[in-house]
Amino acid sequence: MWIKTPIRKTTKAIVIGWTPGTGMMAPTFGSLVLAAHDKDGLLTYIGSVGTGFSMATRRSLRARLDELAAAAMPFDATVGGRGREGGVHWVRPELVGDIEFREFTGEGLRHPSWRGPRSDKDQAEVTLPG
User: Fold this and answer.
1) Is 70 exceeded by the pLDDT of residue 71?
2) How many C-beta neighbours within 10 Å does residue 43 have?
3) Mean pLDDT for the chain?
4) CA distances from 85 to 19, 21, 73, 76, 90 (A)
5) How far is the C-alpha of 126 from the C-alpha of 128, rounded, in Å?
6) Is the CB of residue 11 less than 8 Å from the CB of residue 99?
7) What is the distance, to the nearest Å, from the Cα of residue 117 to the centroid of all Cα atoms in its chain?
8) Left, alpha or beta for 77 (phi > 0: left; psi -120 to 50: alpha)?
9) Cα separation, 9 vs 7, whole angstroms
10) How large is the average pLDDT for residues 96-114?
11) How far apart are CA 33 and CA 53, in angstroms?
C-alpha cells in the first residue's frame, strides 16, 4: 500500500496586513498578509495565509492587528503584483508568526498554514524562506 505524504516546510514571517473576512470570518479577518527581509534587508512580500486559525486565535489576532494599524503599506512594492493593495488593512511590521508551507516560488508561499505566533523572534531576524 502506498501513502502519499506531502513534504511541508516551516518558516517565520512578519505580518504586515490583513484582508477582510466574509461570512463567519467577517468579525475577524480573511487572511494575514506576510513579508520577510530579503538579502539586502528590505521587507518583501511573501504571500498571505488564511488557514490554521481557531476562532479564538482569530479574535485575539484581530485585536492585536487593530493595535498595530498603519495608514500605509510598510514597504514600496505591490503586494505580489496581484493588485490587492486596495483591500488590505496595513499594520506595523511587529508581529511574527510561524508558517507551514509546501514551497516558496519567489512570488509567494504555496499552501501556507498558520502555526502560531513567535514572540521569541524579532521581526529583524525574519528572512526569505529557503
Assistant:
1) yes
2) 19
3) 89
4) 10, 15, 8, 11, 9
5) 7
6) yes
7) 11
8) beta
9) 7
10) 93
11) 14
Q: Is 13 helix (H, G, I), strand (E, B) or coil?
A: strand
Rounded to an integer, what distance in angstroms lies between the CA atom of residue 110 and that of residue 41?
23
Locate 29 and state its grid cell.
Answer: 479577518
Contacts of 110 (CB under 8 A, 6+ apart): 101, 102, 103, 104
Higher-confidence position of 6 and 49: 49
End-to-end CA distance of the chain: 32
Q: In sequence order, what are the beta bridge partners of 14? A: 35, 96
pLDDT in tens, 45-64: 999 999 999 999 999 999 99
Supply 62's cell numbers: 484581530
Sorted by where each starts, the structural domains of the chain and their CATH numbers stand as 9-125 (2.40.50.140)
Q: What is the DSSP string of 76-114?
A: SS-STTTT-GGG-EEEEEEEEEEEEESEE-SS-EES-EE
